Amino acid sequence: MEISETAERLMKGERRALARAITLVESQKVEHRARATDLLEAVKDHGHEALRIGLSGTPGVGKSTFIEAFGMMLTGQGLRVAVLAVDPSSARSGGSILGDKTRMDRLSRDPNAFIRPSPSQTHLGGVARRTREAIDLCEAAGFDVILIETVGVGQSETVVAEMSDLFLLLLAPAGGDELQGVKRGIMEMADMILINKADGDLKATANRTCADYGGALRLLRKRPQDPDGFPKALTVSAVEETGLASAWEEMQSLTDWRRETGHFAARRAEQARYWFEAEVREGLLARLRREPVKGAMRDLAARVEQGELTAAAAAEQLLQDYLHA
Known about the structure:
Elements: H1 3-11, H2 15-26, H3 30-43, E1 51-57, H4 63-76, E2 81-87, H5 100-103, H6 105-108, E3 113-119, H7 131-140, E4 145-149, E5 166-171, H8 184-189, E6 192-195, H9 203-219, E7 232-235, H10 244-261, H11 263-288, H12 293-305, H13 311-322
Parallel strand pairs: 1-4, 1-5, 2-3, 2-4, 5-6, 6-7
Helix pairs in contact: 1-2, 1-3, 2-7, 12-13
């Protein structure tokens, strides 16, 4: 299919065109990369602005269950919802199960929802390398809310904050390690902390956990992009579907304030710069994997192994030969 035709169909909201477009941008083939770049250029002036929500949390906290309940609530309000779920890839085989769609059975059958699982391909930060471009495509396809579910590997999972307007951190009640300093990094990036599973026997525990994190958030340095009272901690139950509506109201309130004060547009501009610099870095690394740099690197590595050169001297020689060419 021609790029112009794909772009036209995608901006009309055709799901098949969107699926094929995401497959194209996720491809690692060099010839596909050029076509993907052309496609992204073709749809960049679509004029539609979605709300991008990133979700992180440890495995087992109930991210998929929460997304399904939350997504069903949003589609019930007439909103179109896209879910980009990133599955961990095996470091040994490179394969991924991609089972998120089976865990969101109701949402996957909703005509106003689109679910796309993608392999992380061992990319650090909890998201796939091309997730940001998939977000752009979903936005061009007219979706109102885009939910980005990360791998769920833990506290280093903050890259998703660089591609979302709101960053939610899901935690389980009495999950252990409460308020430890090791969590400070991801807590500082979160716009809201949601204590999931606030139902049944865990409800009282969830309320206590919420109060603990609420107190901890008040001790953090205030960020310029937050109005009074944010970031905040709330309790939700994805199973009983309680607390979802109030959490959505808080998200809308925060988003509206940021739009009115200019923080929303400024943050997107910062993110665009961040991803430009990330593309440059990735492009430079890609050149190391191609000839003639690959061969020169192999030869220098052999000399380092034999003790003829130090690692620092060999690296400097390679950079001098090829980076300044």
